[in-house]
């Protein structure tokens, strides 16, 4: 029997829920979420096909149905990241040079914030932080009705960001500069969010992009994306472990383009493009203590191209987006997480093209 991670929010706020901490007889015996308001569920950001239009979908826990047109406005192309924070949804749309702010309950547009080539988002202590390729800056957006913004210059082509130990860590890839004849960047910018200033840089490797933090040990998991010479890979994707106490960097033998760290089960969940040689992305887990890696295989579940990973701590769910063939509708898989770190498939549903991020909302009460 495996013990499921308890979800405090769901236990307190929804008396109709089955207890998420109950024992299960098998990995498939996952406590369902039922009898909830229709607007409780997950927003699904679909990147769209290359050059196509992005869209926002919504999976309702009240109806167990997916709506691929949760937002009827035009996001544009190149939607890259999504956050649900407070009563609002924030969406970065890189090619459209904007961050779109929606009301999480009504899904109506509240504000469009113009940022040149925005990439990734982070919520931290009342602000939304966004990286910008167009200006090589980190923007801090006030989440009140004023939506005032400040910024600080970071490295070239800043990508993902995370927070631990009171600091914000920004990866600087330089890949957009390299495409235009420049050079790659190779460092993490360490930002003091109170003063919005750079405290120091940590050199890791060229073209670093993905990052996630083990907040219990203040350790960073950082991936350097592959570097190409024409159509050939000159430097393969590679995962690094960074100790923020002494800035020591340790390299792994493979890459992980998607990283989710769950300190409570002492594991990271990864999507790797080079763990195998079959040209397909691999879904795997990394033990944070032993640093051993295992491919994740589940009975009656077959992934074509794992594309995105999101952990929803409020309900202890791990969500994997499968891009399939990158041109037709993808699939979203939602897993319950056990104390052992094992996963149990809860449900799956067709979504839009290239599902890139999800965010959870509890009806009129929005998780934050």
Automatic annotation (TrEMBL):
<protein>
    <submittedName>
        <fullName>YncE family protein</fullName>
    </submittedName>
</protein>
<dbReference type="Pfam" id="PF16819">
    <property type="entry name" value="DUF5074"/>
</dbReference>
<dbReference type="InterPro" id="IPR051200">
    <property type="entry name" value="Host-pathogen_enzymatic-act"/>
</dbReference>
<feature type="signal peptide">
    <location>
        <begin position="1"/>
        <end position="22"/>
    </location>
</feature>
<dbReference type="InterPro" id="IPR031815">
    <property type="entry name" value="DUF5074"/>
</dbReference>
<keyword id="KW-0732">Signal</keyword>
<dbReference type="InterPro" id="IPR015943">
    <property type="entry name" value="WD40/YVTN_repeat-like_dom_sf"/>
</dbReference>
């Amino acid at each position: 029997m495996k013990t499921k991670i308890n979800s405090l929010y769901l236990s307190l706020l929804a008396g109709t829920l089955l207890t998420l901490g109950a024992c299960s007889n098998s990995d498939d015996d996952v406590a369902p979420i039922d009898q909830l308001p229709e607007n409780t569920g997950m927003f699904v950001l679909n990147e769209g096909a290359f050059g196509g239009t992005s869209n926002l979908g919504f999976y309702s826990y009240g109806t167990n149905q997916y709506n691929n047109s949760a937002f009827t406005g035009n996001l544009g192309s190149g939607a890259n990241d999504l956050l649900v924070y407070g009563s609002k949804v924030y969406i970065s749309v890189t090619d459209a040079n904007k961050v779109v702010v929606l009301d999480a309950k009504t899904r109506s547009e509240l504000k469009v914030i113009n940022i040149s080539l925005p990439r990734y988002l982070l919520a931290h202590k009342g602000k939304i932080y966004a990286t910008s390729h167009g200006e090589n800056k980190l923007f801090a957006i006030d989440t009140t009705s004023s939506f005032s913004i400040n910024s600080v210059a970071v490295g070239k082509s800043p990508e993902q960001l995370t927070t631990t130990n009171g600091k914000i860590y920004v990866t600087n890839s330089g890949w957009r500069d390299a495409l235009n004849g420049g050079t790659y960047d190779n460092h993490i910018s360490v930002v003091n969010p109170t003063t919005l200033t750079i405290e120091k840089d940590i050199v890791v490797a060229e073209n670093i992009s993905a990052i996630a933090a083990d907040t219990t040990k203040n350790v960073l998991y950082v991936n350097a994306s592959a570097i190409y010479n024409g159509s050939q890979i000159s430097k393969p994707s590679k995962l690094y472990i960074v100790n923020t106490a002494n800035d020591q960097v340790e390299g792994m033998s493979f890459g992980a383009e998607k990283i989710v760290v769950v300190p409570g089960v002492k594991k990271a969940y990864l999507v790797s493009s080079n763990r195998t040689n079959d040209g397909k992305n691999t879904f795997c887990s990394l033990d944070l203590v032993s640093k051993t890696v295992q491919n994740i295989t589940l009975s009656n579940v077959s992934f074509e191209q794992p594309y995105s990973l999101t952990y929803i701590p409020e309900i202890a769910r791990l969500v994997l987006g499968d891009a399939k063939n990158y041109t037709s509708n993808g699939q979203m898989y939602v897993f319950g997480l056990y104390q052992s770190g094992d996963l149990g498939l809860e449900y799956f549903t067709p979504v839009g093209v290239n599902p890139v991020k999800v965010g959870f909302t509890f009806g009129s009460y929005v998780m934050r």
